[in-house]
Amino acid sequence: MNQVALFTLPNCKWCNEAKAYLKSKKIRFNIVDVSKNKHALNDCKRHGCKGAPVVLINETWICGFDKAKINKELGIK
């Protein structure tokens, strides 16, 4: 089973889109609010991500809400 984490910011349109998309695909995921978790924010930055959302699937970091990359990593068509 894939381990999925969604790093978000409050009131972020693309974060809400990503949440809705993962829910619609029945993907289980953990939400991490980077405005409250500075360690998680630093992890995102260290992997080259400059904004939210960031999707972490197993060991793959996806910066932004990129459906094609998310689908590829999860094996969704």
UniProtKB/TrEMBL annotation:
Domain Glutaredoxin: start-end pairs = 4-61
What CDD domains does UniProt report for this protein, alphabetically?
A: NrdH (cd02976)
What's a Gene Ontology MF term here?
electron transfer activity
Q: Which domain of life is it from?
A: Bacteria
Q: Name one Pfam family in it.
A: Glutaredoxin
InterPro entries from the entry?
Glutaredoxin, Grx-like_ET, Thioredoxin-like_sf
In the record, biological process GO terms are:
cell redox homeostasis
From the Swiss-Prot or TrEMBL record, give the protein name.
NrdH-redoxin
